[in-house]
Amino acid sequence: MKKLIIANWKMYYGPIKAGAWIRAFRRERLPKELDIAVAAPFVSLAAVRSSLGRASTPAIAAQNVFWAREGAFTGEVSPDMLLEFDTTYCLVGHSERRTHLGETDKMVAKKAKALQAAGISPVICVGETAAERKRGDATKVVRGQVREAMEGLKVDGRAPFVIAYEPIWSIGTGQPCSARQAKEMHDVIHEVIFKKFKVKCGEVRVIYGGSVEPRNISEYLNTVGIDGALVGGASLDPRSFGLLCRSAAPA
Ligand code: PEP
After folding, report:
1. 44 in ligand 1 pocket by Cβ < 6 Å?
2. Ligand 1: does its nearest atom lie under 6 Å from the Cβ of 211?
3. How big is the chain by its Cα radius of gyration, in Å?
4. Is the distance from the beta carbon of residue 233 to the nearest atom of ligand 1 less than 6 Å?
5. Residue 131 class from Cβ within 10 Å (0-12 exposed, 13-18 middle, 19+ buried)?
6. 186 assigned to active site
7. Sequence-separated (6 or more) residues with CB below 8 Å from residue 197
């Protein structure tokens, strides 16, 4: 399976800037050996879709979803609505949502299940805080998050789920988790996935996120068990994200 790099724009770029970003990024030389996606705010998905025209790279990702198909859920967006923009991936349980919006493991599991049922690949974000790591609880916390999120999932060829390991102490801090530390946790996550689905490492992608930049991406992607990256800050400039993608391609 190809390695996967997802740009997470977070709460940046409304439709006008989103369209400009896509046009600039499309001028970059992009490696064919990678799957590349961009996670845009809901309001920018239409602009991303139309700026892409017939191009399929980057694939379209959303940053959140609600689990019901439709109904009285003011302000929410369903998987079917995301499909109208050809959405391929959707982040769920990003630590910023868990921290600021009270998203729980149970909510994450419901969202992931609803996405997969609709044919969109959930990208489930998990990771420990600095305090949990300091206490020696990092592995326990992440195992629990992954187990609970996978509750209603299948190993589905149409909408394969992805796990994004994002140690919270490394997100947006410029303090990357070393490739060795990341690998230790990726091995744990692959083991939890194997226990439930009996699929080999490589069949379900586990990607890393946390202060990934053009200068360190290859360290992660050249590590066995790290199947891609979720990139926040370093994805905001389309040229530098293009450079990051080229630096990530296998040597
Ligand atoms: C993220 O938003 O998921 C992320 C990893 O951010 P950053 O790359 O800025 O640390």
Report:
1. no
2. yes
3. 17
4. yes
5. exposed
6. no
7. 155, 204
**Shortest-distance atom of ligand 1 to CA 234:** 8
Is the distance from the beta carbon of residue 8 to the nearest atom of ligand 1 less than 6 Å?
A: yes
Query: Does the model's pTM come out above 0.90?
Result: yes
Question: Can you give the residue range of the structural domain that contains 142?
Answer: 3-248
**Domain harbouring 157, CATH code:** 3.20.20.70
**235 in contact with ligand 1, CB cutoff 6 A:** no
How confident is the model over 218-231, as pLDDT tens digits?
999 999 999 999 99
Q: Is 190 a catalytic residue?
A: no
Q: What is the pLDDT of residues 79-129, one digit of tens each?
A: 999 999 999 999 999 999 999 999 999 999 999 999 999 999 999 999 999
The closest-lying atom of ligand 1 relative to the alpha carbon of residue 94 is: 3
User: What's the number of domains the chain is made of?
Assistant: 1
Pocket probe mutation, ligand 1, options 10, 11, 175, max atoms within 8 Å of Cβ: 10
